[in-house]
Amino acid sequence: MESLAPSDDREPRFHAPPVPLTADGRPRRVGVEVEFIGLPVRAAVDVLAAAFGGLVREEDAHAWHLEASAIGDLTVELDVQHVHPHRAQQHSLPRLSPPVSARLGAALSPFVPRELITAPLRLDALHLADRAVDVLRRAGARGRGITPFGALGLHFNIALPALGPHSLVRLLKAFLVLEPQLREEIYSDVVARLFAPPAYPPAYVEKVLAPDYWPDAETLAEDYLADNPTRRRSLDLLPLLLHRDPEGIAPRLTDKVSKREVLHYRLPLAWVGEPGWSIAADWKRWVGVERLAADLAKLDAACRRALAGSPLLATGP
Hints:
By secondary structure, this protein is an alpha+beta fold. The protein has eleven helices and eleven strands. The chain has helices at residues 41-52, 98-108, 127-138, 165-186, 190-193, 202-209, 217-227, 238-244, 246-249, 280-294, 296-308, and strands at 29-36, 55-60, 63-69, 72-78, 114-118, 121-122, 146-147, 150-151, 154-158, 235-236, 263-267. The strands form two sheets. Strands 1, 2, 3, 4, 5, 6, 9, 10 and 11 form a nine-stranded antiparallel beta sheet that branches. The chain has a two-stranded antiparallel ribbon with strand order 7-8. Helix 4 packs across helix 10 (280-294) and helix 4 (165-186) crosses helix 11 (296-308). It starts with 28 loop residues before the first strand and ends in a 9-residue tail after the last helix. The relative contact order is 0.16.
């Protein structure tokens, strides 16, 4: 088994957010999702097991789990719902039998990405997601942001530093202030911008950045759903809102959404096939959002400048 100890001279630096603990004093965690092509699902799980140990378990022909590994629990699956027959359906089509879903998955495999999904990692273990990506790349996983059939995604599922609406609104305000600059940095060419999630509607941005916008949880959810009834936002709050009020939120959703008490930060460009690629740069951008949110005076000034059309603050530390 390869060594998992970080190497200070080679590991990308994973910046720490200003609030590393949850409200109850536990270390915050981040789940990572990375899409790739080329390497079959079962082969991907096998090379991860060889590198990190653990027990391989089959869910279906196109979803495999690695449990109790040195990185924790992992899943590798084909990223299409219809080929996973044992899961709860979030669509109206007839359920496929395992043999039929297996054949469908085999037919789709040349076109549909595979997805590596980690269990929530401690912040000081995020470098292990890079190690897993490197293992996959060396075994034949490919992908450089965009394929002929779409983008390859990188998603962070981020535990909140506190659960109240005030904490969430601060993070949302900070993200909306910085989102124009983030989009310029992440989607640096015209082709990449074609796959960017749509920006928040300008009227919603103006509402949230207003100095007196500090709603309660119910109003925050109502306002968000009114202007953002889709998961196609860079900072997708639907999993969190659904977790907090499943009966009130679920009937109003048209997209497939899994309830999770996390912030779902979605980036459409993963570069698994690029030697040396790291998730650290995108994580650093998110930490810049949290640092702005943690400084209320700086955040208020940034919101006022954004509303007035002034240049936005930098995301760097």
